[in-house]
Amino acid sequence: MREWLLPYRVNLELYGQGLADFIEGPGYNVLITERFAEAFRAEGLTGLLGFHPVEVVRVKRKRKGPKPGAVPRYFTVTVCFSRAAVDDGRSRLRRFAPVTCPECRTPGRDSIHGFTLEPGTWQGEDVFRPRGLQGCILVSERFAEFVKRHGLTNVKLTPIEEYIWDPRRMGPPDAPQAGPT
Fold first, then answer.
1. Helix (H, G, I), strand (E, B) or coil at 26
2. Cβ neighbour number for residue 150 with a 10 Å cutoff
3. Cis ω on the peptide bond leading into residue 176 (within 30° of 0)?
4. What DSSP line would sit under 59-101, residue for residue?
5. What sections of the chain are H helices per DSSP?
């Protein structure tokens, strides 16, 4: 992916009642509010890199509702790429081809029905992207408690053993395949 370069400017779309503390941005970037950034730094959490100010050019409401109030100050951060690696042997993954690169763990998957990390590969980052699922953001229990404690918005946390991604509705890899009867 291309790197997002200066100047950091965004147009935000508002779907709910207020602007979120966490917004997925372009590429591997995410946007966080100043409140989120200050609390993250104060608590000594790890895994977010950059903290560059972003100019919000426009906020467009996508659903009916009151006009948004004051727009918080946003920062762009990058979630670190970790040495943590998805454990194919202990995870419930359906792959369309065998892994060809032990570093990035490609090719991709047809479905995910829960996964786990290889023991000893995670180095304790609080927010990170693991090898084998670089498109997913994983967080530590400490980060999950941080989100709750600060009431941060637009952060949906799912335990990795319950995570499901199955766009073609193939079902879990050990489920019987549906076929003609």
1. coil
2. 16
3. no
4. EEE-SSSPPP-SPPPEEEEEEPEEEEEB-TTTS-EEESS----
5. 34-42, 141-150
Output the pTM of the full model: 0.87
CA 166 to chain centre: 17
* Percent helix, percent strand, percent coil in the chain, to nearest 5: 10, 30, 55
Tokens standing for residue 53: 């100010």
Do 71 and 56 touch, CB atoms closer than 8 A? yes
Q: Give CA separation, 13 vs 40, 60, 72, in Å.
A: 24, 5, 14
Give pLDDT tens digits for 101-110: 888 877 678 8
CB 68, CB 14: distance < 8 Å: yes
C-beta separation of 82 from 129 below 8 A: yes
Q: Strand order in 48-61's β-sheet?
A: 9-14, 48-61, 74-79, 29-33, 22-24
First to last CA, the chain: 46
Residue with tokens 């992207």: 129
State pLDDT tens for residues 57-71. Answer: 999 887 777 777 789
